[in-house]
From TrEMBL:
Classification lineage: Bacteria, Pseudomonadati, Bacteroidota, Bacteroidia, Bacteroidales
Protein name stated in the entry: Uncharacterized protein DUF4251
Record-linked Pfam families: DUF4251 (PF14059)
Superkingdom assignment: Bacteria
Organism, scientific name: Dysgonomonas alginatilytica
InterPro entries documented for this protein: DUF4251
Length: 178
């Protein structure tokens, strides 16, 4: 009786363990793909040719808005940057898409990588409609990123959360800038 109970328990544990484990090949492929995206994102940051496509915007007091990555982004090309917000609303806004688009010149670019591989990237953006410091945090081993835009003249901090891509990989639509 004890032997049968032991065998049934062993079979149950083996079957339970088999059904909950991931396919190691699929997991390795996924990890390699994520690492490749991370490497491409870091290369884009180093080349100063990147776009953060945001799928979520967080405002000063923690309110979240889920948005379209095609129209909500922060981009950098050389020494120029664009910050764009566009919401689905009946009001066209200054950019013609329900939000605002500002262009500026980039200065004071700094990039640091910690021991775990997380990257912090910061830059100052100055232009006709913007004067802000932008802090990017890229998670190690993926292209997932959040960017905090901190204006120099008020405390209306906005955080963009999404994925960072090279300019060539990105598919964003830029509205009318201020």
């Amino acid at each position: 009786m004890k032997t049968i109970l032991f065998i049934l328990t062993s079979i149950t544990l083996v079957l339970t363990g088999c059904s909950t484990t991931k396919d190691p090949v699929a997991s390795a492929v996924n990890d390699a793909e994520q690492q490749m995206r991370y490497d491409m994102a870091i290369e884009a940051l180093n080349n100063r040719e990147f776009v953060l496509e945001a799928d979520r915007i967080t405002f000063k007091y923690g309110q979240n808005a889920f948005v379209s990555p095609n129209t909500n982004f922060i981009s950098m090309s050389g020494d120029k940057a664009t910050i764009q917000l566009a919401f689905n609303s009946p009001y066209a806004g200054p950019n013609g898409m329900g939000g605002i688009t500002v262009d500026g010149s980039v200065t004071n670019v700094k990039m640091k990588t910690d021991k775990k591989g997380n990257v912090t990237y910061s830059m100052n953006v100055m232009g006709a409609g913007v004067s802000a410091i932008v802090f990017f945090n890229i998670t190690a081993g993926t292209n997932q990123c959040s960017a905090r835009v901190t204006p120099n003249f008020n405390s209306q901090v906005i955080t963009f959360t999404g994925y960072i891509y090279s300019k060539e990989e990105s598919n964003v639509y830029k509205g009318r800038a201020l």
